[in-house]
Task: structure prediction
Amino acid sequence: MEKNPTCFGANISGLSADAISFLADSANVGIWNWHLPSDEMRINRSIAQITGYELGEVPHRGSTRIAMIYDEDVDMVQQNVDALTRGEIDRYDIEFRMVRRDGSIVWVTENAIIYEWDEQGVPIRLAGIAFELSRLKQAEQKARDMEMEVKRMNSLSSEQDFAEQNRLLRAGNSAAALLVGDFYHDYETVLNLSLQVLGESVQADRAFIWRNRATEQGEACFYRSEWTCDGSSVFSAGKEDKLMYYDEFFPSWQEVMAENHYTCAQTESLPDGLRQAPGIAGSQALMLVPLYLHGVYWGGIGFAASKSNTTFTNLEAEIMNASGLLIASSISRNETFGKLNKAREEALASTKAKSEFLSRMSHEIRTPMNAIIGMTTLAHKTDDLPKIKDYLGMVDASSRQLLAIINDVLDMSKIDANKFEIMNDAFDFEKMLQNVFNVVQVKLEEKNQQLFFETNQPFRQMIISDELRLSQVLINLLNNAIKFTPENGKITLKIQQDSDCDEGKVRIHAEVIDTGIGIDEDAQKKLFQSFEQADGSITRQYGGTGLGLAICKKIIDLMGGQIWVESQPGKGTKFLFDVTAELGNELPEVATTADTKDLHVLVVDDQRDVLEYFQKILAGFSVRCDVAQSGREAVSLVQKSVESDDAYDMVFIDWNMPGMRGGETAKEIKRIAGNNIIAVMISVSDWDDIEKEAKEYGVTNFLAKPVLPSTLFNTIAELAHYDFGQTAEPTPTAPEDVDWSDKRILLVEDIKVNRVVVEGMLKGTGIAIDSAENGQQAIDIFQKDGDKYDLILMDVQMPVLDGLEATRRIRLLGTDKAESIPIIAMTANAFKEDEQICLEAGMNKHIAKPFSIEGLFSVISEYIGRTKSR
Result:
């Protein structure tokens, strides 16, 4: 055998390798080129598609090809390859089976040769061509089946009948060959061509397949496929939403179909409803053949003719039944494979998303952890107190970031376990909003962004819903807006109330609008999916776990509402949601005797949106309101009001304005109007940051932006009623002002660092603290001298005896003190059900770790007061 060293990629008869590959793809012929020493195998698209893959989805290795061969055929193929490489044969031509991507089996015919050897004559390159045989084999089997049917009917028919049967059977055979052997068209095209062959064989103008669907309203059907001789469309084939209910157009359908009855008739003789059905009306003759798969009524195949002299026969119906069953089986198989492939693709996409999510989570967790560890190390290395304070601030910020990530992961795990619940309680919606604003304020200041608030009316009643989850949604949406909006950007929260629903309920519509980067249409489709981000690439500019919006959607869904997004790249984003809540008791009115309708108020701000908001809200409170968009304009209005004897009672002034700033404006206004005018500074800044400078201008009253309606009304009412020098929002008693020098608590905590944290927080209050390291120690201490304790802080998860059982046993000690002493759960079990378990065990309150010093002081103060007992 002569060894031809010609390279497979060289020009052959003037054709390049690319041209040969193109021609092979066009003919649906697979080509492979196998380099034996490296196991590298080059393949074209057709050979990849034989096994259901696209080029690039499988490793180009000879071992990969062998792995795809059906187990029972591997030895035979390998034997031929070995014989070829040993020189026993100069080529092989074999048929074998391969396993497709969806698990099905495909027959392949393959020819191969050796075309390159090394200097020692050892084969190093093989080349082969392959193409699929499965459809041809199936077509051959169908042809054999048809031939047997011909022979059977031939024994029963006259020569003329036989000729007719033979013609129809050939048509059926052609349709079958198209369905199982067409390599060049997509499935729907092949299906339409099959209907054309059958329709023309019975001289019909139209052929169609209908498919059944069981619905709650009853059995229905829709037109699955259609062929017409002139290419027109009588109905929307394949539209499952275009259902036709049998009872409406064919009341006797169950009786007819139960007999597997063919309908071959002139259209005018059909029942009225059936005659007027889509696809039938307007035809002269009709043949309907019901199809049963596995004993179940699947649907049917129909033929219609517009010529009055056309008739359909039972013989045609018999043969069309066989062809129709083939089509029905093909459609069902195609649907099944489609669903399997879709499920597989979804599973692969989910796996990929989760893998990317784990990568992001590793990054998101390690980033704050790195900061915590790094800043702690640096703090240990310096005695510079300002630096230590700065480091600790970074540790605090990173810890809160880490806690937010953990909370998202825990929420997502509860969603996956179907244990995510909504807890409805009455709450003040505007107070909840104020807490939300407080949470996002730091991030707003970091990027020098402005947050605006708009509402159509104040909340005058309590809202019965889940306050924690609603605030979680708003915080998440606002944080996203802050994250994706550049510095100096604008963010707006709109809250609309709609009482036009069931009595005792209110529909709340919220919009979070930013001026950020926007989101394209493709990315919007993934926003509310678990483990997804609009940009999940490793080089993405913005971080995040990709869980927040999925959690928001779950919360809103559980509340019976809906959430969606509207956005365009470069034009900002708007997140919107609607929820319906029950209305609770009316909110208490402000305790004041002031008559606000006689007040005259001036609002000064360089932002037109803020001025319009104040005007709308104050109009609702019957307060006369003028506005000025600069300090100079405000001073001019005050001067005119004094001269016209219609002086302003109160002025709200923005702290940061271009030109004449808020403090300068307040000072000039007080010079003109005197100290009787009340000046209230409004700002996004914290009052502690500007208090000293503001007081130098004579301003002692402050409102934080954005200003809520109830806060605005309370401020006006209080300042109009009380002394003018009183601040609108008195600062809460600071922890250092607390005097608990006559109090003693029992701290039950097994982890030393947690005991140190609590003791450090309470240092300076004068309170005495005794400690126990587990529940049993706590019981022993309390039994010995329980009367001296005013309160117990109890961890839940501890060795020896947990906090829940320790609480139960203390309550059963039988003394008045054991029954009445406040026991506060102090635990990392932070879910609502965990709190309920603590209360059921006999505890009075639940503090979730990690807790803030303000939270700890607030809970303790609730039970032992804030000052020393008299």
About this structure: The CA atoms of residues 376 and 667 lie 45 Å apart. The chain has 27 helices and 28 strands. The first helix runs from residue 17 to 26. The first strand starts at residue 30 and ends at 35.
